[in-house]
């Protein structure tokens, strides 16, 4: 089954800024009806204006399964099933700290946003995708989930869990017309990265053979291909976007 871009509806979490906003703009420009999902209502409205008229907003906490079920189910009842889901909502938590020194509550928070947030939204949109025998799910993971970053145990472990979930879901849904993939970027210039301690960013950038950060445009372009109708024979895969740091 092949769908035109302008016949599709997408949810992008973490869409108020950074990677989520960049992907929202890209899909909107392709003709997709974009639903920007985030926790920050004021930032969401600003983002909606930046994305364009064929976009709407959904203010919801992805760590709360009941809230996600209520909000997303309401959208589906109004406008039909979701064709594309991009899970971009993320949190780094406390960084540049040894794992045994991190507050356990912070570790739990990072997992609730990065792993459970992606699980919750996927759980809600999958029944509609299964009914129409079509769907594209993209989890934004991280190179840290493949290799681990010192001083970022919670973030690295949560993104490794996202990659593991991607592989499992990809296999489960392989015969349904639904693909589930992950995108594992290295350092991308986003507000989240800019908020990190400089020494943590330097540590990560120094590992990149290209010796630079990735751009939001680069990640949006690759994301658009992964969720396109043409990307129909790749599932359960973690795409690299790391400037040569990880090639596996």
Question: Can you give keywords for this protein?
Answer:
248 residues; 7-stranded parallel beta sheet; 9 helices; 7 strands
C-alpha-based Rg, rounded: 17 Å
What is the rounded distance between the termini? 30 Å
Overall helicity? 40-55%
* Major sheet characteristics: 7 strands, parallel
Strand residues, percent: 15-25%
Strand order of the largest sheet: 3-2-1-4-5-6-7
Shape verdict: globular
A few lines on this structure:
The chain has 248 residues and is an alpha/beta fold.
Characterise the protein shown here.
With 248 residues, this protein is an alpha/beta fold. Helices cover 46% and strands 15% of the residues. The chain has nine helices and seven strands; from the N terminus they run βαβαβαβαβααβαααβ. A seven-stranded parallel beta sheet has the order 3-2-1-4-5-6-7, with helices on both faces. Strand 4, helix 4 and strand 5 form a beta-alpha-beta unit. Helix 1 (18-29) crosses helix 9 (216-226), helix 3 runs parallel beside helix 4 and helix 4 runs parallel beside helix 6. The longest helix has 29 residues, at 104-132.
